[in-house]
Write a structure and sequence with these properties.
The protein has about 270 residues and is α/β, with parallel strands linked by helices. It is built from eight helices and 14 strands. It has two domains: about 140 residues, serine acetyltransferase, domain 1 (Orthogonal Bundle); about 100 residues, Hexapeptide repeat proteins (UDP N-Acetylglucosamine Acyltransferase, domain 1, 3 Solenoid).
Length: about 270
């Protein structure tokens, strides 16, 4: 038992202290509440109040980064500045995503409903925040963010994926988007879609393992698209429950045609 305790102590001594789930939730909530009134449980009545919210949010990010200070490529102050310099771009991208969802879903009753209640919008929001930090070489935290979103929505987007504008996730449960996926503009993805790798060998970590989805593609529920060399051409439609491991030319309809068997139930009794 003593040997085990010594081994455990050695590991605990070496371990990087990661931020708690509560701290991660706090930053995400404060940032989304500042950006979108639909997320805020109190009314902003002055610019000074909004500025105060802004500085609280920057401090919240600083607290997260303190746990990883020795592993950062930049100083904490530099990471915070670089992230918030890109916040206007993140905001505009998310407005376009919300617009795509509102315009594309007949059940949507406006942008505010989309922002507050659609799991797809929440998952996209967390991805765009995490992706910005991922590009700044911040370790651990981007993945912690997207796994927070995954646990809340059932949508698993790696922070390293590349996703264009006007991205529409409909329903969303069970969607998986791998690290090296590239998704263009005006793409629509339904529940249960996988953009995955043909091989999960560790030596392929630095290669493009996941597919490219060009502009205007619609991918229906349960479709699986695999491989780093697989390209789904512009304006194509991928039907539900399809399995694709090779490129599809632009403006192509791909669908799976199962055999449907119907019998009179009364004759079976």
């Amino acid at each position: 038992m003593e040997d085990l305790i010594n081994k455990l102590y050695s590991k605990h001594s070496e371990k990087t202290t990661l931020p708690s789930p509560m701290l991660v939730d706090s930053f995400v909530d404060s940032l989304l509440s500042m950006l979108f009134p639909a997320f805020n449980n109190k009314k902003i009545v002055s610019k000074d109040q909004l500025i105060d919210e802004y500085y609280k949010t920057t401090k919240s990010l600083e607290v997260l980064l303190l746990h990883l200070e020795r592993d950062l490529s930049y100083s904490i102050a530099e990471v915070v500045k670089l992230f918030f310099d890109q916040l206007p771009s993140i905001y505009e991208s998310l407005l376009k995503d919300a617009e795509a969802i509102d315009n594309g879903d007949p059940a949507a009753n406006g942008i505010e409903e989309v922002m507050r209640s659609y799991p797809g919008f929440y998952a996209i929001s967390i991805y765009r925040i995490a992706n910005t930090l991922f590009k700044l070489n911040v370790p651990f935290i981007p993945r912690i963010f997207t796994e927070l979103s995954h646990s809340k929505t059932g949508i698993d987007i790696h922070p390293g994926a590349t996703i264009g504008e006007y991205f529409f996730i409909d329903h969303g449960t069970g969607i998986v988007i791998g690290e090296t996926s590239i998704i263009g503009n005006h793409v629509k993805i339904y529940q249960g879609v996988t953009l995955g790798a043909l091989s999960v060998k560790k030596e392929m970590a630095e290669t493009k393992r996941h597919p490219t989805i060009e502009d205007g593609v619609v991918i229906y529920a349960g479709a699986t698209i695999l491989g780093g060399n697989t390209i789904i051409g512009k304006d194509s439609i991928i039907g539900g429950n399809t399995w694709i491991t090779e490129s599809i030319e632009h403006n192509t309809l791909v669908y799976h045609q199962p055999e449907l068997i119907k019998k009179n139930n009364s004759k079976l009794q």
